[in-house]
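Bug report

Summary: structure tokens for AAA+ ATPase domain-containing protein differ between web form and batch submission.
Environment: batch mode, default settings.
Steps: 1) Submit the sequence below via batch. 2) Compare with the web form result.

Sequence submitted:
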Amino acid sequence: MFFKRTIEEDIKKYLNSKETKTLFIWGPRRSGKTTLISKLASELGVKRYNFDLESDREKFAPRKEELEAIVKENKVILIDEVQNYPEATVMIKLLHDEFGVKVIATGSSELRQKSKDFDTMAGRFHEIYCLPLSIFEIFENLKPKTDEEKEFKKQLAERLQIFGSYPEIYAREELSEKERIDLLQYILDAYVLKDIIDIYELKNEKLAKDILIKVALQLGSEVSIREIAESLRAYPSTVSNYIEIFIKNYILIPLPSFKTNIRKAVSENRKLYFYDLGIRNILIQDFRDLDLRPDKGGVFENFIILELEKWRRLTNAKVNIYFYREYGGREVDIVIEDYKKNYTACEVKIDKGQVKDIFPLPHIMETITGQVYFEKIAAVLKNK
């Protein structure tokens, strides 16, 4: 089943405009980027160049005469996995400056870190994001009947908290539970770990996995780099570098502590959450029903934060997302700050319960529970 993605409207607007800046589509492997660009190639009648293949990379030598031949063959140039050719930035810049041709390139954002020439692209590109399926994308594609919406949303939240929302995991109804777990293990081993180890030339795949496991066991808690380093007998700088790579490659979501001039928050640590809970659960080897799990509160909190983060990326919303903690230990799970310094404070609870409103700045207060998570996320995001 092919799911229509939110960013298809952005791509359509780009293609129908006179814009010739390159359109980068960033996101983790297996999030649907190749499916999108293959569909585009078919609709436009052009070739999809795959930079996983050396033969395709060789066609894009940064020489005017060779690029001219590609431009003549393709009214729009589509490139998949552009991060595998860091020198591509010189070529893409030439396509913009010399030929004024539209280029759509998918990949991981490490191209910005790996290419010494990426800064020369300033003013020559736009960027959008293709992430694992969001709850709103799933709802719009499946469109349950009105009298079935409540049960649909309940089952949707449970399913995404256990198996995540990678398109090939969610959309393939024929998969058994064992097949879903095996596929998640494959994605973890072949893409989340091996791909990053290869791209960044990291020396220790076991350490990378162990760091992710440590983070996976601390959902909802502040993560201490030093404590993780000590427990794994690694240097704090090494652990920090690995975590930053996981963040840049859409595996981990950082949630910083909010600071105010009124009441300084005590923590310099961040909380870390996963872009996909299926990946988190395969790391700790736990696919039990949520009611049987002692970590269900942290899992639900991760679920809400990753949906907010997907929405922020997909819509290019001008907001920052934090947590807030006082010296006495009291916390606000989520603080959303827009660029006009309007604040929404959110408490995340699986079930209803008492909420203490402690955020010190003027704000709107929301409580997001398992019963009304869909409506509350939509309300929090409205007009942002």
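Above is the batch result. After comparison, the two runs are identical; trailing whitespace caused the diff. Residues 135-381 form one domain. The mean pLDDT is 91.
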